[in-house]
């Protein structure tokens, strides 16, 4: 009976997920015509294109190596009794109490994966430093790493403690409480992360009064998007790359511009980027992401519960039930696998949403020439591959490529979009 309820709830969640995704994601928005893209590519300086390609060719082995290694470690820990053994050991100093197993066992399992991939992360750092993208010393890089471990430990520790408290006290109905709790956590985090976690890594200061700030606030007002503030992040202490983004919902919403952007780009280009970010706010992309994330996470908890009656899986991991902390390794393996499978779909959705925000910027500013100049500058400063290999773009790219974005501006200028 319990399983029937779970399966029914899962079905309802998936239907809502599909309806929300159908309504809120601009599916029918193919990239700009390929001839326009090739024309744009032709106009980029050849040495810049070559440098971007060389940079990404050097990064590739480390990136895919890390991906593969993470999967292998997760599968080895999750589908052998190794993970259960690790969790048992971690809980031993506390008499094997389930809460100690949940928190410390979770840390132990994640730590193994982090340590194994650490050399690849360090390798990546040497490459981004050599190409002048990163401005971080090894010391600063290590501090960032430790900070992200600490943030992950706090959020992960709370999530694990919460989850296993529920499975402990509601062994039959944990899927229902767990799904609701997980969805709630996703919503909470999307409010809290920008305000609490982002300042751990960067300092944010309100943009100084002046023509640019006035223009950005006027742009937001003209667009009908309430923005609390325009903040500048001190990204230059870490990178030479430029970026801007919008984060937070409702009262925590703000436009954030990297300080690198203000020194490297023309004010009109900053306006163009901000117009793109306002597009995200106006179309409720952060909210959409939060809702889809919450629904997806709730569904994942129920899938986990249903998988828990698959004896083969449990005996691989050497556990009695999927709801005990000793199954954390198995949990991590399933999450890692699901993440890899869902990645290309998420990237596809993201690219379509980004293309819509680009169009918003074009319409709002009515200035495709500056938009194209800004894309060119973003590509140059961030050492993008302006026209990456098609398979890589399909699998992983969260944004349209530089030439796709330049081509979109050209199509818009001709009145085609
Ligand atoms: Zn965007």
From TrEMBL:
GO terms for biological process: CAAX-box protein processing. InterPro entries: CAXX_Prtase_1, Peptidase_M48, Peptidase_M48_N. The active site is at residues 277, 358. Keywords: Hydrolase, Membrane, Metal-binding, Metalloprotease, Protease, Transmembrane, Transmembrane helix, Zinc. Gene3D superfamilies: Metalloproteases ('zincins'), catalytic domain. It comes from Paractinoplanes abujensis. The keyword Transmembrane applies. Residues 68-203 form the CAAX prenyl protease 1 N-terminal domain. GO terms for molecular function: metal ion binding; metalloendopeptidase activity. The keyword Metal-binding applies. Zn(2+) binds at residues 276, 280, 354. PANTHER family: CAAX PRENYL PROTEASE 1. This is STE24 endopeptidase. Residues 210-412 form the Peptidase M48 domain. Belongs to the peptidase M48 family. The chain crosses the membrane at residues 64-87, 99-125, 145-166, 173-197, 286-307, 328-349. Its EC number is 3.4.24.84. Its cofactor is Zn(2+). It is an enzyme of class 3 (hydrolase). Binds 1 zinc ion per subunit. CDD domains: M48A_Zmpste24p_like.
């Amino acid at each position: 009976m319990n399983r029937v309820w779970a399966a029914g709830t899962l079905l309802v969640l998936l239907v809502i997920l599909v309806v929300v995704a159908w309504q809120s994601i601009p599916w029918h928005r193919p990239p700009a015509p390929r001839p326009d893209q090739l024309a744009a590519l032709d106009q980029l300086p050849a040495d810049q294109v070559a440098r971007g390609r060389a940079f990404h060719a050097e990064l590739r082995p480390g990136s895919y190596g890390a991906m593969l290694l993470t999967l292998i470690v997760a599968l080895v820990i999750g589908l052998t009794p190794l993970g259960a053994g690790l969790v048992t050991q971690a809980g031993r100093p506390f008499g094997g109490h389930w809460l100690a197993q949940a928190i410390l066992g979770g840390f132990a399992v994640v730590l193994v994966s982090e340590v194994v991939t650490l050399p690849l992360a360090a390798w990546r750092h040497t490459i981004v430093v050599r190409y002048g993208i990163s401005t971080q010393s090894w010391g600063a890089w290590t501090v960032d790493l430790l900070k992200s471990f600490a943030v992950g430990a706090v959020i992960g520790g709370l999530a694990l403690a919460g989850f296993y408290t529920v499975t402990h006290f509601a062994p039959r109905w944990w899927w229902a409480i767990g799904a609701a709790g997980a969805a709630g956590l996703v919503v909470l985090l999307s409010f809290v992360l920008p305000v609490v976690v982002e300042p751990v890594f960067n300092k944010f200061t309100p943009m100084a009064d002046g023509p640019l700030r006035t223009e950005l606030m006027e742009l937001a007002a003209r667009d009908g998007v309430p923005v609390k503030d325009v903040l500048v992040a001190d990204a230059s202490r870490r990178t030479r790359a430029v970026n801007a983004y919008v984060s937070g919902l409702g009262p925590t919403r703000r436009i954030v511009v990297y300080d690198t952007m203000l020194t490297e780009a023309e004010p009109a280009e900053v306006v163009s980027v901000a117009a793109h970010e306002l597009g995200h706010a106006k179309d409720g992309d952060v909210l959409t992401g939060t809702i889809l994330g919450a629904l997806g996470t709730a569904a994942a908890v129920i899938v986990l519960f249903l998988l828990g009656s698959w004896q083969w899986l449990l005996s691989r991991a050497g556990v009695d039930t999927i709801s005990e902390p000793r199954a954390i390794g198995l949990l991590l393996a399933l999450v890692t696998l699901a993440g890899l499978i869902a990645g290309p779909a998420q990237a596809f959705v993201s690219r379509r949403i980004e293309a819509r925000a680009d169009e918003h910027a074009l319409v709002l500013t009515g200035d495709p020439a500056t938009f194209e100049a800004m894309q060119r500058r973003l590509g140059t400063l961030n050492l993008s591959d302006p026209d990456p290999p098609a398979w890589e773009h399909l699998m992983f790219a969260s944004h349209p490529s530089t030439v796709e974005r330049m081509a979109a501006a050209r199509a818009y200028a001709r009145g085609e979009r």
